């Protein structure tokens, strides 16, 4: 009898609750952190490219089309980051609304292509959060007030974070504000906060640098006396270690660029990521 009652209540209650929650897909872990923070328990969130994975070269998993087919919103970065996504949305036959979280930012150019790494500037992250909040509120008006309250609290934290970064950079001697990172993921950070980044890989991790590119970088590091080189959590270490060995620049640690880490890693959230990076930069450059 008790079993039957339980069974009956499951039948009535759970489908209703599941239907109330908005199904949202985020393309990669950094966007997922924004969406989770704003959406809280009012949404069902699925992340396609999880922690410590490279969104530039993602190969969709067999279940991804189904996840997209069931979603009402698909939140993407845009600016050419998720080249694999339009085909996936099309093949899923999904009617989900695709929300471009970077819509309100001023894109930087690298050659002829847009630089997709806009989230590395905290003021840009605030624009992402505003874009995501509007999309969630429009898709689920009943919870709009909740989303706006969540966003307001989070935007205050981001404002404090932005001040933290500016204060930390101000303590680095101006002639030491230059580093090497693996790929060109920190253009927006550089433009916002005034640290110069040089990267042997371009704006994507897809292409391997030639011997000539590497020789040019090594020459540049020596000529500019760049004090430190950094590894990245999503890229292969070998290239940076080789550059360090040939130039005498020190390895300053790991920068978190395009993907958060798992729960127990260095940066499970966006705020952790920015704090980790600024700490790594200042401890390598600040003397
Ligand atoms: Zn990247």
Characterise the protein shown here.
This protein has 287 residues and is an alpha/beta fold. The protein is 47% helix and 15% strand. The chain has helices spanning 2-20, 29-39, 64-70, 85-91, 122-139, 144-170, 187-193, 211-224, 238-247, 270-285, and strands at residues 22-28, 43-49, 73-76, 97-100, 109-110, 113-114, 178-180, 196-198, 228-232, 250-255. It has a four-stranded parallel β-sheet with strand order 2-1-3-4, with helices on both faces. Strands 8-7-9-10 form a four-stranded parallel β-sheet. A two-stranded antiparallel ribbon has the order 5-6. Mean pLDDT is 89; it is low at 8-16. Bound molecules: zinc ion (ZN). The site of zinc ion (ZN) has 6 residues, from loops.
Summary?
This protein has 287 residues and is an alpha/beta fold.
Keywords:
binds zinc ion; four-stranded parallel sheet; Rossmann fold; 2 domains
Tell me the Rg in angstroms. Answer: 21 Å
Major sheet details: 4 strands, parallel
The CATH superfamily title of the largest domain: Nitrogenase molybdenum iron protein domain
What is the H/E string? HEHEHEHEEEHHEHEHEHEH
The helix content is 40-55%
By DSSP (H or I, 4+ residues per run), the number of helices equals 10
